[in-house]
Automatic annotation (TrEMBL):
Transmembrane segments: none
SMART domains listed in its UniProt record: AAA
Biased composition range(s): Acidic residues: 489-498
SUPFAM superfamilies tied to this protein: P-loop containing nucleoside triphosphate hydrolases (SSF52540)
Protein name per Swiss-Prot or TrEMBL: AAA+ ATPase domain-containing protein
Pfam entry (one): DUF87
AAA+ ATPase domain: residues covered: 24-213
Region Disordered, annotated ranges: 478-498
Length: 498
């Protein structure tokens, strides 16, 4: 079905039409400095296409929540856990509901993590739910930065990976990315390069104009035209817009953002008591802080005399300052807390940071003696606990398996050790659903990719018997799992149901 969206007027007076079906297949990049009308363009696109396609807007400033009242979008407040956002995204795709992910009020790192969790949930939806969705990401340079910034590497990798999946691999899953940015130079090149349609607005920096001219296939001297564009005017190019660069003016919109551009307004008449108004605290304000005078400077001779004095020998304490810690009791307490965490059915789908905070709280409740485990040690102990074998009682083969797992990323160690435990015990090979829970995912396809990754590292060898059951062998351990069907249900969920 061919649907043309009216984006406004072209220079020749014709209607600037956008082929919606072609847009879903080829994606769109919008660029313009602050005040160029970029958000107005996105609002026009969303309003015109709302009756025809499901929409998902990643909104860092809360500007697009006003679409909810007129067009029925559901506003998803991002102040939730990452696991909850991922599950909501899966239900959004299942029920084909248009949503606005409101990231307002979160700091930059929290916004990146929340957007990554939501986009990851949409990307990992079941194949039966791969309906077409227009995914609009405003201020895309925040979620796909070209260089590392002040946020942690973990948050940047999560967000950049989600944006890369959206623009590079999302088309086959029905996800059509529409990304908007103020600075092309700050946007990751592998994300921007996947768009085939472009709407370039006003920009002044040479580096951004150079990137824009490269994407549009224009001469560098022609890129000077971007400086002369007025607010709401863009240069369009792409199979869904125009085969040649075309200047268009974006049409009006039906809804408005909660924030508006600043407008000049006359100043009020200066009151006679202006001085008292600004220097006298109001009744609701806190009492002013009293500034103490700085201490008198100490002569240099006195400082040198103090430094030259011999330090008195400390008195020997009659008793130890700190209580003697029973290591066996401490280890038993840590193991008990880890078992409590893993008994929660949702623990597998929570991030290590959330589980670590839960571990610290439970350790204080149980009064586990000694310093708490650092995050790196907690991740290691958690991976071993998920495998279900004690480090001290697993034998030499289990020690070898632990040594092999140390070379893997933290999030893969639990899944690897679970397979190793099944091989050492001659148990059936765990199913994709069981391994997905150990990895913290609902996607069997991701499990199969990770098994292929283990094979590439030379850690395991996978084979299938004549009945279609999977067997995973460990050359370094000299053992293999019993045959197991990869499509069997999750053992944990099945035991809970029984």
């Amino acid at each position: 079905m061919k649907v043309n969206i009216d984006m406004g007027a072209a220079t020749n007076g014709a209607v600037a039409a956008m082929d919606l079906e072609e847009l879903l297949a080829t994606r769109l990049l919008v660029q313009g400095n602050s005040g160029s009308g970029k958000s107005h363009l996105l609002r026009r696109l969303l309003e015109q296409s709302a009756p025809w396609v499901q929409q998902c807007i990643v909104d860092p400033e809360g500007d697009f929540v006003t679409l909810a009242e007129k067009f029925g979008h559901q506003v998803v407040d991002a102040a939730r856990t990452e696991a909850e956002l991922t599950r909501i995204a899966g239900r959004v795709r299942q029920h084909r509901v248009s949503v606005v992910l409101n990231l307002e009020g979160l700091d930059v790192e929290q916004q990146m993590r929340a957007a990554a969790a939501f986009l990851g949930g949409m990307f990992d939806a079941e194949r039966d739910h791969w309906y077409p969705v227009l995914v609009v990401v405003d201020e895309a340079q925040l979620f796909a930065p070209a260089v590392a910034g002040e946020v942690s590497d973990d948050a940047r990798k999560l967000s950049l990976g989600a944006m890369t999946n959206l623009m590079c691999r999302g088309r086959k899953r029905g996800l059509a990315g529409v990304i908007a940015t103020q600075r092309l130079a700050k946007l990751a090149k592998n994300v921007a390069a996947e768009a085939s349609n472009f709407l370039m607005g006003r920009t002044f920096l040479d580096i951004d104009m150079a990137r824009a001219s490269d994407l549009l296939g224009m001469d560098r001297r022609q890129a000077e035209m971007f400086r002369d564009l007025s607010r709401g005017n863009f240069v369009a190019l792409g199979p869904a817009l125009s085969r040649r660069p075309l200047a268009i003016t974006i049409g009006p919109v039906e809804t408005a953002a909660r924030s508006a551009s600043p407008k000049l307004m006359p100043l009020p008449e200066a009151p006679e008591d202006a001085r008292d108004l600004i220097f006298t605290p109001g009744p609701e304000e806190a009492s002013p802080v009293v500034r103490r005078p700085p201490p008198k400077p100490v002569p240099t001779a006195d400082i040198l005399a103090q430094l030259s004095r011999p330090r008195p020998a400390p008195d020997q304490p009659a008793e130890p300052v700190f209580a003697v810690i029973d290591e066996a009791e401490r280890e038993a307490g840590i193991d008990a807390v880890l078992r409590e965490i893993l008994e929660d059915p949702d623990a597998a789908f929570r991030s290590d940071a959330v589980l670590y905070q839960d571990f610290l709280v439970r350790s204080r409740i149980r009064r586990v003696p000694g310093e708490p485990l650092p995050l790196s040690a907690f991740r290691r102990r958690l991976a071993v606990a998920r495998a279900g074998v004690d480090e001290s009682t697993g034998g030499e083969a289990w020690v070898t398996a632990l040594s092999l797992s140390e070379g893997l990323p933290d999030d893969l160690q639990g899944m690897f050790l679970m397979i190793a435990r099944a091989a050492l015990n001659k148990d059936p090979c765990p199913s994709d659903a069981t391994l997905a829970r150990a990895y913290g995912s609902h996607s069997p396809r991701r499990v199969r990719r990770l098994i292929a990754y283990f094979e590439e590292r030379g850690l395991i060898v996978a084979r299938t018997d004549f009945h279609g059951r999977r067997v995973l062998a460990f050359p370094d351990l000299g053992c293999e799992t019993a045959p197991g069907h990869p499509d069997a249900p999750d053992e944990t969920e099945r035991d809970a149901a029984e």
